Amino acid sequence: MSKNIRISKNDILKFKKKLREAPIDYGDRPERMDPSLQSKIASGEFPGADLPAYPNVDPNKLPSNFEELVASERFKQVVEKVKNYTGVNEVTPNSFMQLQRMLMGSVQQIIQIESQNKQKLEELAVEIVKQEMAIPDNALQFDAKIVGMGEINMDGMQGQEEEEEESEEQQMDAEEEAMDEFEDFDIEKQKRRFLNQLIQGASKKGHYMFHLIEEELNKINPNLINLYGVMMSINDLVYWIMPDETTMMMAQSGEGIAGKEEVDPTTDPPTIKVQGITFPVLVHELIKGVMEVLATQGLPDDPNKAKRVMDAEDTLVAEVWDLRLGPVIWEKFRESYPTELMQDDKKEIQNYLFSEFASMPATDMFRLAKNILSGSEEGQNELKRITQEIIDQINKDDYEDGTDQYDDDDDTTPVVDGDDVLGSLDLPNNNGGEEFDMDTILDKIGSSGMSSLSTEELAFLRRQSKA
Q1: In 6, 20, 241, 328, which residue has its Cα 20 to 30 A from 203's Cα atom?
Q2: Is 1 a member of any domain?
């Protein structure tokens, strides 16, 4: 007598998952990432796997965890960019040799064109980053240089390479020593790892910001736009289809280094120094430098502890993985920003918001990050609340600065609050083109007091007090 065999929906899902090339969801596309890379994503054997900031996903579906979801989305984005700029219909091993030739050809042409226009392109790179990130003229200094292939100054990066070569025993001894210094070493490392993912994710958008200044670039050479697109899209693809061990060896040897950034905090204001072999790389490094400044609020206050955390997490191996997964994580993070922050006159608030997020205690930051990355309404509402607090604080500072300027009993000069979420960064105050007359404003203060002034008038007084 035969028995009826019942197969549950859960069993079917598990069976389908085995049939498909888990953990990555490729859909019906023929493109595949390198098997060693896919294996590491499946096993979680990479820097940044299983962070407390990641939300849960349905384990019975593809992808089955957040890292697989991010990798699936990012790989699809990268492949589509390559197809768009190169015209190649399918990104397969058969077409990769063709893509490599296109990459080398585009780089050679770009270097030739840029060699005659370096200063102009360096200035454009700084200008576009300051404009898109709403950085005031007096907030940061920039030293941006386009350099030739193999001319990246590796000073300051050698220590990272040597660190990668330390024995496992030496690394464990160093971490044990750090854990003895402060109990929350592990969670601070996780916090730094997640912030680094956001930093690299934000800087990746610089690869394609050349589209924002097409008119200026076309004046230099009408072929630059497409050449940049070919170069940067194929470069992104290499991170996904080359064996992971090869990518790491290239990074550690310096062979794959196309740019470098460092922040000099000893100048006033701080100086972001960057080098890049081409304009898009230079923009990428500039954004990374700005984000590094904003994220300093996320490090431990104790300099020794901060150094321990950075030594543990700011490695070349980890950076490669941040470049792979960071763009999608940053996109999801930005999608939860209040919509008003996308307006040109509110862009500067985005910097304050990110810095405030970075300054949170690790457990609070992870809780909020999990809500943000899951797309929950709770996460969006929390960001709205923080944004409103920032705006209220800015308005309060404007008011108090104006009051101090016209208080006859107080001849002190207003100073930047050390607890300001951006430290030395000073927000720009725009009046939308409206002209204010000082005598009229003074009469208004005399008759009705400071409280009668509008936000724009207060901002005008603030600017005049600093003039």
Answers
A1: 241
A2: no
Same domain (yes/no): 360, 320: no
Omega before 269 within 30 of 0, i.e. cis: yes
Q: Choose between 60 and 361: higher pLDDT.
A: 361
CB 262 within 8 A of CB 248: no
Backbone angles phi, psi at 276, to 5 degrees: -155, 150
Answer for the pair 209, 127: CB distance below 8 angstroms, yes or no: no
Q: How would residue 104 be classed by pLDDT, with cut points 50, 70 and 90? A: very high
Distance set, CA 350 to CA 384, 427, 462 (Å) = 11, 11, 21
Asked if the model's pLDDT at residue 280 lies above 70, the reply is yes
What letters, b where the CB count within 10 A reaches 16 and e where it falls short, cover 225-250? Answer: bebbbbbbbbbbbbbbbbebeebbeb
Q: Which of 283, 300, 335 finishes a domain?
A: 335
Alpha helix ranges (H) inside 44-167:
66-86, 93-114, 118-132, 158-164
Indicate whether 3 belongs to any domain: no
Q: Is residue 4 part of a domain?
A: no
| Residue appearing with tokens 């064109």 | 113
What is the DSSP pairing of strand 141-146 with strand 259-264?
unpaired
Looking at the DSSP bridge assignments, the partners of residue 272 are 142, 263
The pTM score is 0.78
Assess contact for 245 and 40: CB atoms under 8 A: no
Write the pLDDT tens digit of every residue in 373-394. 999 999 999 999 999 999 999 8
**The amino acid at 25:** D
In this structure, the answer to whether residues 349 and 278 fall within a common structural domain is no
Q: Are residues 330 and 363 in the same domain?
A: no
Asked if 138 and 426 count as a contact pair (C-beta separation under 8 A), the reply is yes
SS3 content of the chain, % helix, strand, coil (to 5): 65, 5, 30
Residues 165 and 299 in one domain: yes
Residue 457 has pLDDT above 70, yes or no: no
C-alpha to C-alpha distance for 450 and 398, rounded to whole angstroms: 11
313 and 202 co-located in one domain: yes
Amino acid at 129: V
- Average the pLDDT over 332-344 and give the result: 91
| Separation between Cα atoms, residue 76 and residue 91, nearest integer Å | 11
Distance, in Å, from the CA atom of 377 to the CA atom of 432, rounded to the nearest integer, reads 33
DSSP string, 225-273: HHHHHHHHHHHHHHHHHS-HHHHHHHHHHTTT--EEEEEETTSSS-EEE
Range of the domain at 65: 9-335
Largest CA distance in the chain: 103
